[in-house]
Design brief:
The protein is an alpha+beta fold. It has a single domain, classed as Cation efflux protein, cytoplasmic domain (Alpha-Beta Plaits), CATH 3.30.70. Helices cover about 40% and strands about 30% of the residues. The protein contains three helices and three strands. A hairpin with a 2-residue loop joins strand 1 and strand 2. The chain starts with a helix and ends in a 16-residue tail after the last strand.
């Protein structure tokens, strides 16, 4: 009975997209930040999408002096670095952004405009 409950909880967390521990996410953030031209990583998320499989998604702000090919190369290097250190990373979705995108709490509403 206890084993069934434990397996049910584990399977439920896998199906609902359990995030990685903060320490591991911080290490992933550091690997991304180590790339040349990275100014900020305003948003980063890594989610378990299946047994031994992770998806990493986030926003990356680059130095304005970088060219498009340099940004593309940096993104490719980030993906390679993540997969090298964490072989369970299957999908990497990093989006270059100009600056921090406000979440719903930070966006002005009709009442505040």
């Amino acid at each position: 009975m206890a084993a069934a409950v434990a397996l049910t909880q584990q399977n439920r967390s896998l199906l609902t997209g359990r995030g990685v521990p903060p320490r591991r996410l911080g290490a992933m953030r550091n690997a991304i930040a180590a790339q040349a031209g990275v100014v900020d990583i305003p948003d980063l998320l890594a989610v378990v999408i299946g047994p031994g499989m992770l998806a990493v998604e986030g926003d990356v702000t680059f130095d304005d002096a970088l060219t498009v090919p340099e940004v593309e190369r940096a993104l490719s290097n980030m993906e390679t670095e993540l997969r090298l250190h964490w072989p369970d990373v299957r999908y990497v979705y990093l989006t270059p952004v100009a600056a921090h995108r406000p979440d719903d709490k930070e966006r002005p509403t009709d009442e505040t405009v």
